[in-house]
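Notes from hallway chat w/ T.B., transcribed later so I don't forget. T.B. wanted the structure written out for a chain they're using in a teaching module, and asked if we could keep both sequence and structure tokens in one place. Agreed to drop them here.
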Amino acid sequence: MKVRGRFAPSPTGDLHLGNARTALLAWLSVRAQGGTFVLRMEDLDKPRERPGAAERILRSLRWLGLDWDEGPDVGGPYGPYVQSERFPLYDAAIERLLAQGKAYLCWCSRAEIAAASAPHAGEEGPRYPGTCRVPDPARVLARKSQGRIPAVRLHVPTHPIEFVDGIHGPQAIDVQDLVGDFVIRRADGVAAYQLAVVVDDAAMEITEVLRGDDLLSSTPRQILLYEALGLRIPRFLHVPLVVGPDGARLAKRHGARSLTELMEAGEDPKAICGMLAAISGLAREGERLAPHELVMRWDPTRIGRTPARLPAQMVRRDS
């Protein structure tokens, strides 16, 4: 099967250099394999969306030298390429899971979950204790009388989910221990990220997902959804994040410069591309390279397993 890869930014702001590096590596992997590159705008988080961000993202990626075969501005056979226009697909998948008994309605509030479950040591928050797994008619009636609207959760098995990541190697993550039965549709009716990304990647026939390793722990949840929906699971590659010169994760408040900012400042896109390639092990420091000049150098084994550090000049000194 022909390789189909994607980059799926969210229009919650301009792309920082860490996002740009992920886009570059995803593009290189697909182009090196003679595949199709898809750009999808993941705009489900409407309250955080910024006016004009989607257009700036597309413009700055093109400035860097990237292109895509399918996307919101060029179309393609698997559109629309904007998540907020794909709600019927998510609803259909969720109703199917409910009908098959693979998902269930959850009437719990966040406060109730926090009170009933000890917080997880990581960043995932409280583990869901399974309160609504077995329906309690009296409780459901009480919640309905309060005007509460249920979320939908997936039934999660108690065994670890195993997969092989293209960068980090074999993985085994126990989703039940990590988060429990997780939400696939929020109480406001919006599909959760985990569900939407699986439905979209399957519908767009994505065969390879290269993204930041902050999403590595999300992968077993998505694998469970692929399996529950009877969909083909793509190959996953999770690249380490980009950090600042001080080792801190990139953030605008810490002086991380955006791709749009660099473009508008008149920076040389080949210098930026070369720098991103250099911190990824694909180029020498100081090389100025366009993305197409890096295609023959693509080798995922050269990507390290530790965070890539930006040079000091890529962070604003007045931050």
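Follow-up for T.B.: The chain has ten helices and eleven strands. Might be a good example for the class.
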